[in-house]
Specification:
about 500 residues; alpha/beta; 14 helices; binds 6-O-phosphono-beta-D-glucopyranose
Length: about 500
């Protein structure tokens, strides 16, 4: 249903000839159209250097919609009607003077499509363009709100270091107010990520336990089975820290760890998240050696098929020391979390694609029943599964029927897929709609962004200064370096390995 507060508007996508537009953005806008959420008068203007016309752009997007839309059973007629809202302008986006053409085209669009001078500018371009495009727009007055709105959505990576993030923020703020800037992190658009707020704050049973008195440790994992694919030239300069940890994983951490907000509103929620980042214990020199572990995948056989090592991938330096795996132990120094370790890990070419948060509760203080299983598998856990098979799993103990008191851990399991007729929107769908309605709750505020960079920067500096710092190889298809379990000091405790893996090479492998 169309949100009441949504105004007529145009979405202008820079980098419209690229992959993100084709795979994610236009399919998401189409899904919004199918859900009847778009404004009454709406248009998309794709902007890029490639010489498309309106028609050739539409043809390409039709293909993207068919392949990537989450809507089932789409008819050709629906796609054709939707694509009438798509337009294309080819300009040199790095030439300020070409933006007058854009301004003219937008005025025409307003006239012909009643888009009312309300614009969202989506920067889906190489990051080098992030400071330039908003400036060129401002030179044409396209940043000025005069009874209408002008918003800019910026994709990640927002900066490549603390310094560059601060500079980019400062450059944007010369021409735009903070509430015009939408820094996107697609993890925040995932339904299960947002559900964390509801699980924590709509239930009376979790919050009293959600602290250092009852929680032993927390694990946050974003594992991917794919490698770098064709993104080598970007990834080799990025690595897992910049690609996943500084943004997606720290955002998850903030939602797990934040205090209840005063209200469900953008400022209240974002204030609480910022406090978590500010309370992250800075990593000491010892932590950099002991509590941060990086790895890189090496060639292996997965299900009998040869899989390339990272250094053999396209556009990767043959002696690259970029991390494709990162595991860290960190602490949040406040009353709620004092001395509770948070273990965070991510990696490419791991056995499976799974993102989950595991809250490990402390064991019962009195050992009344015979211990049957070691502490590792035996503790109460709440597993918040973000993807795939979204859901919530509580591991709890139960008596095995029969004589005596034999105790067994069982699963209380909820899967989103059990909800009949419930439509799970894609992350981009939700986030685009939020920006269209002016709700920035699920976007990153500038101060929080800088706070996350501030936390990770010492690690990046340490690797820069010590290129020989250990980088552990792990066979593609395995769960990363063996020593990752050593980060968890407690005897008998390991990371959770959520499903069977398929590599027949190296450690942690199950055939
Ligand atoms: C992106 C990273 O931000 O997130 C990719 O650049 C990564 O490297 C992707 O693959 C993971 O997103 P998701 O939604 O598939 O978990």
């Amino acid at each position: 249903m169309r949100p009441k507060q949504i105004k007529d508007q145009a979405l202008i996508i820079f980098g419209a000839s690229g992959d993100l537009t084709y795979r994610k953005l236009i399919p998401a806008v189409f899904d919004l159209y199918k859900q009847k959420s778009l404004p009454q008068n709406f248009a998309v203007l794709g902007v890029a250097r490639s010489p498309f016309t309106d028609d050739t752009f539409r043809d390409k997007m039709k293909d993207g919609i068919r392949k990537f839309s989450s809507t089932k059973d789409i008819t050709d007629e629906e796609i054709n009607t939707f694509c009438q809202m798509l337009f294309y302008l080819s300009i040199n986006t790095d030439e300020g003077k070409d933006y007058s053409e854009l301004k003219d085209r937008l005025e025409l669009l307003d006239k012909e499509n009643n888009t009312a001078g309300n614009y969202i500018f989506y920067l889906s371009t190489p990051p080098a363009m992030y400071p330039l495009i908003p400036k060129f727009l401002a030179e044409q007055g396209l940043n000025k709100e005069d009874g209408n709105f002008r918003r800019v959505i910026i994709e990640k990576p927002f900066g490549t270091s603390l310094k560059s993030a601060i500079e980019l923020n400062a450059s944007l703020r010369e021409d735009y107010d903070e509430d015009q800037i939408y820094r996107i992190d697609h993890y925040l658009g995932k339904e299960t990520v947002q559900n964390m707020l509801v699980t924590r704050f709509a239930n009376g049973i979790y919050e009293p336990l959600w602290n250092r008195n009852y929680i032993h440790h927390v694990e946050i994992t974003a594992a991917e089975s794919i490698g770098v694919e064709n993104r080598g030239s970007y990834y080799d300069h990025s690595g897992a820290m910049r690609d996943m940890v500084q943004n997606h994983l720290l955002q998850l951490l903030a939602l797990v760890a934040m205090e209840p907000p005063m209200a469900i509103g953008s400022e209240a929620i974002r204030n609480e998240k910022l406090k978590v980042f500010q309370a992250l214990r800075p990593l000491s020199d010892e932590d950099l050696f002991k509590n941060v572990l990086r790895g890189q995948y090496t060639a292996s056989n997965i299900k009998g098929k040869y899989t390339k090592g990272y250094r053999e991938e396209k556009d990767i330096a043959p002696d690259s020391r970029t991390e494709t795996y990162l595991a860290m132990k960190l602490y949040i120094d406040n009353w709620r979390w004092g001395d509770v370790p948070f273990y965070v890990r991510t990696g490419k070419c791991l056995p499976t694609r799974v993102s989950e948060i595991v809250i490990h509760f402390k064991p019962a203080p009195q050992k009344l029943f015979p211990e049957t299983v070691d502490f590792r598998n035996d503790d109460n856990q709440l597993v918040i599964r973000i993807q795939p098979d979204e859901g919530l799993l509580l591991k709890t103990k139960m008596k095995v029927p029969g004589s005596g008191y034999q105790v067994k851990t069982v699963n209380m399991d909820f899967h989103y897929s059990q909800l009949q007729d419930t439509y799970l929107p894609e992350a981009y769908e939700r986030l685009l709609l939020d920006c269209m309605t002016g709700d920035s709750t699920l976007y990153i505020r500038g101060d929080a962004l800088e706070a996350t960079w501030k936390f990770v920067q010492p690690v990046l500096d340490f690797w820069d200064k010590n290129p020989d710092a250990p980088l552990h190889g792990y066979p593609a298809g395995s769960w990363g370096p063996a020593s990752a379990d050593d980060l968890i000091e407690e005897e008998n405790l390991t990371w959770r390995y959520p499903c069977k893996n398929l590599s027949d090479d190296g450690i942690y492998c199950e055939l």
